[in-house]
Design brief:
Layout: E1 6-10, H1 17-24, H2 39-51, E2 55-62, E3 65-73, E4 90-96, H3 107-120, E5 127-130, H4 137-145, E6 149-155, E7 160-167, H5 168-176
Parallel strand pairs: 4-5
Antiparallel strand pairs: 1-2, 2-3, 3-4, 5-7, 6-7
Helix pairs in contact: 1-2
Length: about 180
């Protein structure tokens, strides 16, 4: 696959809710645990994120067209509070590539690579933290491909998660290999 170029823009909770609803409630997105969400639930969830100084939702664009979703959060204040010892420079991340009838080989790896590069563009970010469901083997493989190292399983209120970390150096080494 040729290198894909993506850009990012903040999610507009009202304008983007219908698109996000179609992505997040699709069976492929089962690990987002919002299968039964109504459009208003998606609007509300992303309005809450937009209003929260410790979270940010972004759409990844391919040629100006929404192609994936990224959520960035401060693990000191969201998602992982009390579940691990955060370090200065830690940032948490979720990403979702929507289901498609025409899968493109290597697309999701290109997405996670672009997401990680985007996060590391911020000089304050030293390490990315993720906590995918322990059953989500596909995302564990993608995470490993961009340098994540699994530390341990943790119990979150909504799931058993695999706490994993990727430093700037681990990412650079993984994607230049």
């Amino acid at each position: 696959m040729t290198d894909l170029t993506f850009s990012f823009r903040p999610v507009d909770p009202l304008r983007d809710a219908e698109l996000l609803h179609s992505w997040i409630t699709h069976p492929k997105a089962a690990f987002w645990m919002m299968q039964d969400a109504k459009l208003e639930d998606i609007e509300r969830a992303y309005m809450e994120i937009a209003a929260d100084q410790h979270q940010q939702a972004l759409l990844g664009l391919r040629d100006g067209v929404p192609a994936f979703l990224v959520e960035r959060y401060d693990p000191v204040h969201r998602e992982l509070v009390g579940l691990y010892e955060p370090r200065p420079g830690d940032v948490g991340m979720h990403f979702l590539t929507p289901a498609t009838d025409t899968p493109e080989h290597g697309f999701t790896k290109s997405v996670i690579t672009a997401v990680m590069a985007h996060l590391f563009e911020d000089p304050a970010v030293e390490r990315v933290v993720v906590e995918p469901d322990v059953r989500n083997k596909a995302v564990h493989a993608l995470n490993a491909a961009v340098g994540f190292v699994a530390e341990r399983e943790i119990q979150k209120p909504e799931k058993e998660a695999l706490l994993s970390f990727c430093t700037r150096e681990q990412f650079t080494k993984a994607v230049s290999a």
